[in-house]
Each structure stands twice: as structure tokens, then as C-alpha cells.
Amino acid sequence: MPDAILKAKLIDSEFVTAQLPIKAREPSRSNNGRLRHRWDISGADSGFLEIIGNRIDDADVVAWQCSMYEKSGAFLWPTPGSVCFDFSERVFGKFFDRPADMHRYLLHKAQLGNRTVVAEFGSLSFETDGSFYFIRRLGR
To answer: Does 37 reside within a domain?
Structure first.
């Protein structure tokens, strides 16, 4: 795992969403009754970002799904320069001093093992399978 310094120890909704290419915020409630905000990811064939938690300055989870497809409908794995790759790296940039290293490490491990990869840093867990991403507050 790369040496990375965690810059943020909490999921602050306003900090996480600042300067991201997102639109059309929709507030609702999650299945367990917590406040949920969901945005579309601009430029993705299919994509959303959502933040769940009753405290906007210390949310429980930030999750996103971002996919691009070939004309045939086949899934395109995120690569540097693609909408989904760049979006994910920008979110990782909210949390790590070296976001590219952490993002590429997790993405590579997920692609090699064709599975979800998890890395825990302090009170946060970072997870991806290459299409879905989660950053969770541990213990919630």
C-alpha cells in the first residue's frame, strides 16, 4: 500500500462536494432513516455521488458509482483521463495528500482480483470494485 497521509478524518459534506462536477442535488432519506443527498456526476454515462448521515460536517458515508460504456454497451474500466477515473481521483484528493497513488493502488488491486478492495485509514474505510466507491466512517 502506498505511503499516504490522511488529510481529512471526517466526511464533511460541503468539503467533499466543493468543486466536483456534480449537479441536481436530491435530498431524501436512506433505508435506515438517515439524511441522504444525491447528485448526478456530470459527463458520466451512469453516475451519482451520495452522502449519507444526519450531520453534514461528519457524515457516515460518501458513495459514488460512475460508469462509462463502449458503443456496444460493454463496461469501460476507468483509465486516466476518463470522466470516472478523474472524478474518483478528485474525491480521493479531499482525503489524501497523494490521491493518485491511493486511487490507482485500490483500482489496480480491484481489477487484479476482480473484487472489492478495502483500505482502512484512521476512522475511515476506502472501498472500490472499480465502478462503485465507498468511504465509510468506521464504527457506524
So the answer is: yes
